[in-house]
Amino acid sequence: MAADGFKVFPGRLDGSAQAGLAEIVFAAAQVAPFYRPVTPGGRPMSVRMTNFGPLGWVTDAAGYRYQALHPETGRPWPAIPATLIDLWRGLAEAPDDPDCCLVNLYDAQARMSLHQDRDEADFRFPVLSVSLGDSAVFRIGGKSRKGPTATVRLASGDVCLLAGSARLAFHGVDRVLAGSSRLIPGGGRLNLTLRRAGPA
Questions:
Q1: Domains of the chain with CATH codes
Q2: Which of 87, 96, 135, 186 has the least CB density, counted as fewest CB within 10 Å?
Q3: In what order do the strands lie in the sheet with 112-115?
Q4: In this structure, what DSSP letter does residue 165 have?
Q5: What is the pLDDT of residue 3?
């Protein structure tokens, strides 16, 4: 199980803030559309993705990395919304603002296997994650993929933090609880993950 540094802030965003942020995300997706990435091994991921910020996390045959341009449009990613910057400043206890916000869109069948976030330049910076829409069963472990894990249900408006000794904890999404929220038209879950990809 992850050590000190994994924190959940239930209901950190109220209903109005959730709706406003979801609206911003889908408006930005008109400029930086959601796409389905593939792993370096060529396997399509079950989530669709886009990004906010100067850098965006991408994966394709060339590997995992951060880059400044959308891989399909060739255009810069939209700016990180002020609501998310405020959350980072209030919860992350980091000396610099994030330069990336990865946005994952889950449907009822999407999953995220256990993984570590380790493509960033400086692991002293935390990862801050915001849930919108349908609840998810989130799995969190330690620094070994084979170590013990535990699950927590993340509902719309919840925020979680991976910092300190939990920064490189393996984590993933076992399943999405379809119909648990009415926030996203047609259902689904948005996960917005703030990171500092470049050096301080």
A1: 6-195 (2.60.120.590)
A2: 186
A3: 112-115, 171-177, 135-140, 150-154
A4: G
A5: 59
